[in-house]
C-alpha cells in the first residue's frame, strides 16, 4: 500500500475542518502535514484537537512541512495573495471556492499566475455521490444530447458548475436573466446545529436562466436548502432521448422501447451486514454509476466529494490531469456575479469572453 498523501492547509475556519476530518477518518489515504493559523490561541487549539503541527505563516509551514500540495481555505478576499505566494514557491495549491471575490480580482490573479500555475480548485459538487451518479448517466449517452438542466441544489458557482457539466458547456458565453423572491420560512438548522427556538425568518430565492443558444440552464436556489428540514434539493436533466428527474431516470432503448428506472443508493451496515456503515455505491437499474472509493470511511456525501478533490489533487501534484482548473473556477464565479446583477437589475446580462477563457 502506498504511503498517505501529505498536504498542508492555510486557514483555520469552518471549511478547513472538513479536510482535517477527512484525514482523521482516512489516515491510510491522507495526512495533514501542517496548518497555518495566525492566532496563537487558535493554533494551540488545532494542535490539541487534531494533533497536527500549526504554524503562524505560510512561509514557516513550507519550510518545515513535507507536503505534496497545500489547501487554501481562507476568505475569498485573501485567497489571491496566498495563491501567488504558493505559486512563487513552486507549491501546488488546492484552493477553496471561489479563488477571488470580484471580476477585477480574478482577472488580476489569473494575469499574475498565468495558465501554467499549478492550481486546482476544490469544487466538490460534481463529486458528491448523487450528482456524480447523475453526471455518469447523462454522460453515458442514455439521454441523448442534453439540452436542458434545471438545478436547485447549491448556491452561485456551485450550482452553475453543475449546470455547465450537465449541459456539456465549457467557456461559451450566455445570455442571463434573473429574479429574486422573498418569502417567510420557519428557521431550521444551520452550521451550528438545530434552532434553539421557533422563529420565522426571511428566505431569499434566486431564479435565473442561462441561455447558451442551443442549451438552457435553469438555476433556482435559496440558502435555506443546505440545512433545512423542509426545503429539499431538486434536479432535472433532459436530453433528446431521456431525462433524469431527481432519482428517476427515463430513456429510450429504441424509439418505441421506453425504460424507467431509479438511482438507488446501496449502503453497508443494514440488518446483519457488518461491513461498517457507509455508502457503497449508486446503481441505475443494474448498472453501477458510482462507487465509493473511500469506503469504509464513515463520511457524509459532502466529505466524500472533498475527499475526491484531495485524491485527484494528489494525482495532479504528481503530474496527473487536472479536474477543476483556476480558469473554470473563475468562469463559474463570473457567471454567478452576472446572475446576481441580472436578478437585481431585471435586465438580460450577456457574459463576455475573459482572460481565462480566451
UniProtKB/TrEMBL annotation:
GO terms for molecular function: nucleotide binding; oxidoreductase activity. The keyword Phosphoprotein does not apply. Keywords: Oxidoreductase. Pfam families: GFO_IDH_MocA. Gene3D superfamilies: NAD(P)-binding Rossmann-like Domain. SUPFAM superfamilies: NAD(P)-binding Rossmann-fold domains. Residues 5-117 form the Gfo/Idh/MocA-like oxidoreductase N-terminal domain. InterPro entries: Gfo/Idh/MocA-like_OxRdtase_N (IPR000683), Gfo/Idh/MocA_oxidoreduct (IPR051317), NAD(P)-bd_dom_sf (IPR036291). Belongs to the Gfo/Idh/MocA family. This is Gfo/Idh/MocA family oxidoreductase. It comes from Cohnella ginsengisoli.
Amino acid at each position: 500500500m502506498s504511503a498517505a498523501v501529505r498536504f498542508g492547509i492555510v486557514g483555520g475556519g469552518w471549511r478547513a475542518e472538513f479536510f482535517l476530518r477527512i484525514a482523521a477518518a482516512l489516515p491510510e489515504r491522507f495526512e495533514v502535514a501542517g496548518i497555518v493559523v495566525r492566532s496563537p490561541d487558535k493554533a494551540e487549539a488545532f494542535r490539541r484537537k487534531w494533533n497536527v503541527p500549526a504554524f503562524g505563516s505560510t512561509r514557516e509551514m513550507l519550510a518545515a512541512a513535507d507536503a505534496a500540495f497545500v489547501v487554501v481555505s481562507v476568505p475569498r478576499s485573501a485567497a489571491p495573495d496566498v495563491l501567488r505566494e504558493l505559486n512563487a514557491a513552486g507549491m501546488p495549491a488546492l484552493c477553496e471556492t471561489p479563488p477571488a471575490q470580484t471580476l477585477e480580482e480574478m482577472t488580476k490573479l489569473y494575469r499574475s499566475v498565468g495558465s501554467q500555475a499549478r492550481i486546482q480548485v476544490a469544487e466538490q459538487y460534481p463529486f458528491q455521490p448523487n450528482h456524480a451518479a447523475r453526471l455518469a448517466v447523462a454522460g453515458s449517452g442514455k439521454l441523448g444530447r442534453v439540452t436542458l438542466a434545471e438545478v436547485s441544489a447549491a448556491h452561485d458557482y456551485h450550482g452553475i458548475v453543475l449546470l455547465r457539466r450537465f449541459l456539456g458547456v465549457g467557456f461559451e458565453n450566455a445570455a442571463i436573466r434573473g429574479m429574486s423572491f422573498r418569502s417567510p420560512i420557519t428557521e431550521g438548522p444551520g452550521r451550528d446545529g438545530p434552532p434553539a427556538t421557533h422563529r420565522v425568518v426571511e428566505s431569499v430565492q434566486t431564479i435565473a436562466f442561462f441561455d447558451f443558444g442551443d442549451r438552457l440552464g435553469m438555476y433556482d436556489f435559496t440558502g435555506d436548502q443546505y440545512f433545512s428540514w423542509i426545503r429539499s434539493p431538486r434536479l432535472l436533466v433532459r436530453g433528446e432521448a431521456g431525462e433524469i428527474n431527481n432519482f428517476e431516470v427515463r430513456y429510450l432503448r429504441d424509439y418505441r422501447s421506453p425504460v424507467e428506472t431509479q438511482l438507488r443508493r446501496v449502503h453497508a451496515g443494514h440488518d446483519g451486514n457488518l461491513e461498517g456503515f457507509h455508502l457503497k455505491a449508486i446503481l441505475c437499474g443494474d448498472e453501477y454509476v458510482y462507487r465509493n472509493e473511500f469506503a469504509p470511511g464513515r463520511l457524509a456525501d459532502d466529505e466524500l466529494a472533498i475527499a475526491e478533490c484531495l485524491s485527484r489533487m494528489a494525482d495532479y501534484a504528481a503530474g496527473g490531469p487536472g479536474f477543476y482548473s483556476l480558469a473554470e473556477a473563475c468562469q463559474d464565479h463570473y457567471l454567478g456575479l452576472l446572475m446576481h446583477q441580472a436578478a437585481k437589475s431585471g435586465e438580460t446580462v450577456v457574459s463576455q469572453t475573459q482572460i481565462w477563457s480566451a
